[in-house]
Amino acid sequence: MDHLTQKEQSKLFVNNMTESAIKIGLLLVLLFWTYDIVRPFVIPVLWGAIIAVALMPVTQKLERMLKGRRGLAATVLTLVGIILLITPVVVVSGSIFEGVTRTLEVLQSGEVKIPGPTQKVADIPIIGDKLFEIWSLVSTNLEKAILHFLPEIRHAASAMAGVIGSSLATLVMFIVSLAIAGGFMAHADACTKAVQTVAVRAVGPNAQAWSTLTAATIRSVLLGVVGVAFIQSMLVGSAMFVFGVPAAGIITFAVLILGIAQLPALIVVLPVIAYVFSTQETISATIFTIWVVLAGLSDNFLKPMLMGRGVDVPMPVILIGAIGGMLTAGIIGLFLGAVILAIWYEIFINWLQSDRREQAALAPEDMPTSSETLD
Predict the structure, then answer these.
(1) What are the TM regions of this chain, as residue ranges (predicted)?
(2) Residue 297 C-alpha from the chain's centroid
(3) Torsion region of 181: left, alpha or beta (phi above 0 gives left; psi -120 to 50 gives alpha)
(4) How far apart are CA 328 and CA 337, in angstroms?
(5) Do 223 and 176 fall into the same domain?
(6) Do 294 and 336 lie in a common domain?
(7) Residue 29 has what pLDDT?
(8) Measuring CA to CA, how many Å separate 268 from each of 98, 169, 251, 252?
(9) 233 domain residue, yes or no
(10) Total structural domains in the chain?
C-alpha cells in the first residue's frame, strides 16, 4: 500500500513538474516575443519619461499661467522642444550643403591654388617626410592626388554618410521622445499613480519614496551635467563670438557635447588659443586666453554647487553614477546610472540603520525595572 502511494505521489510530482515547466516555457516565449515587439519603443519611452520628469516643474508653472490647462502647457513645451531640436539641424545642414556646393564649383572651375609645404613640415619628427610628400602632390597636381587617395576618400565619404544617417535617426528618436514626454506631462497625475502602484506591488512600501528620489535625481543630473555643460558652452562661445573666431558656433556646440560627455572643454579651447595668438594682438589674445580658460575650468566649481541639489544623496554618488552610466549606455546612461546608484545608496543606508532601529525598539523592553535594579 505504501509502495503504491509513493508511486502515485511520484507520478503526481512528475506531472506537476512537467506542467509547470510547460507553463514557464510558454511564459518565457511570450515575454521574449513581447520584448521583441516593444524593443524599438524602449529608448524613446525612457527618454520621454526623463524629459517629462525634468520639465514637470516648468509645465506646472506654465499650467498656472494658462489657468489650469495642463494639456495645453504640455503641448506648448513639446512644440518648443521640437523647434529647438530642428532649427540647429536645418541651419547646420544648410551651411554644410552650401560649403559642399561651393567646393564642387571651385574644383570644377580649376581655380584651386594650394600653397606648397615649407621645409619646416619635412622637419616634423616621424610624420614630416610623408606629410611633405603628400602636401607637395596635392599642391602641384590635385587631380593625381585625388585619384591616388580615391579609396580613402570613398571610405571617408561613406563614414560621413553613416554619421549623418545616424544623426538623423537620433533626431527622429528625440522628436518621438518629446511627443511621448508631452503625453506623460499632460497625464502626469495618472502616470505617477500608476508607476507608484506597480512599484509598491513589486518591491514594497519603500518604492514610493524611491519614485520621488528617482525624479529628484533626474532633475539633479539634468542641472548638474547638462545645465553646467550649457553654461560652460555659453561662456566659451561668448568669447569666440566677441573675438571673431571662425566657426564660433561649431566650437560652442563642440564644448557643449564635451561637457555633457564629462570631457574637459580645454580639448577644444587650447588649439583655438594658439590660433588667436597667431592672428591677433598680444593683449587681445591674452584677454581671450584668460576668458576661455576660466570658462573651460568653470565646471570644477559649478558641479559641486548644482549637482545633488534637492537630493538626499551625496554628490559623488550621483556623479559616479552619471559618468559610469554614460560610459556603459551612452547619454541616457547619465540619468539611469545616477538613479540606480542613488537607489542603491538609499538601500545601503536603510540596511545600516535597520540594526539601530531594531536596537532602539528593543531597548525599553530590555532595560531593568527599578525593583530589579534595587535587588
Answers:
(1) 12-35, 41-59, 71-97, 159-184, 221-244, 250-275, 282-298, 318-347
(2) 21
(3) alpha
(4) 9
(5) no
(6) yes
(7) 92
(8) 25, 26, 7, 9
(9) yes
(10) 2
* Position 247 in a domain: yes
List CB contacts of 223: < 8 A, sequence separation 6 or more: 306, 307, 309
One domain for residues 309 and 182? no
From 158, 186, 214, give the residue that closes a domain.
Answer: 186
DSSP state string for 66-106: TTT-HHHHHHHHHHHHHHHHHHHHHHHHHHHHHHHHHHHHH
Q: How far is it, in rounded angstroms, from Cα 166 to Cα 164?
A: 5
- Residues near 267 by Cβ (< 8 Å), separated by ≥ 6? 258
pLDDT tens for each residue of 257-273: 888 777 788 888 888 88
Enter the pTM of the model.
Answer: 0.64
Q: In which domain, by residue range, is 215 found?
A: 203-352
pLDDT tens digits, 81-137 = 888 878 877 766 666 666 667 666 666 665 656 666 766 666 667 676 777 777 777
CB 117 within 8 A of CB 132: yes
Q: pLDDT by residue (tens digit) across 28-45?
A: 999 999 988 888 888 888
Triad 309, 332, 201: Cα angle to 5°: 75
pLDDT tens track for 304-326: 777 766 677 787 887 788 888 88
For 13, 97, 337, the CA distances from 302, given in Å and listed in that order, are 64, 38, 21
Tell whether 226 is covered by a domain: yes
